[in-house]
Amino acid sequence: MIRFACVFALMAAPVVAQTEDEVAAMTRAVEEAGCVVTADNGDAVQAASGLDADQTMAVIAQMYNDGLVALQADGTMKLTNEVCG
Questions:
Q1: Is the pLDDT assigned to residue 15 strictly greater than 80?
Q2: From CA 39, how far away is CA 21, in angstroms rounded?
Q3: What pLDDT is attached to residue 8?
Q4: CA 56 from centre of chain
Q5: What is the pLDDT of residues 18-48, one digit of tens each?
Q6: Mean of the pLDDT values across residues 60-80?
Q7: How far is 49 from 31, CA to CA, in rounded Å?
Q8: Cα distance from N-terminal residue to C-terminal residue, the chain
Q9: Dihedral of CA 50/58/73/70: which sign?
């Protein structure tokens, strides 16, 4: 099972460019989850995105590096786009 907490370990790793479709799929999945990914809904968000574990980790790392998601002190990840603010 994927846990978004593992993304923290990837933040220092080089990011391989992901397709716009993969980023869009993850963005939609996070928006549908209420704009926040938690330990409780992380697996459901991944499933909704249609991405596998490796794709998910790379996409989240890219989104973080691009400023599209913010990691919160409580361990959650918040999407920071025009829909989620």
A1: no
A2: 24
A3: 46
A4: 7
A5: 688 999 999 999 999 999 999 999 999 999 9
A6: 94
A7: 11
A8: 29
A9: negative
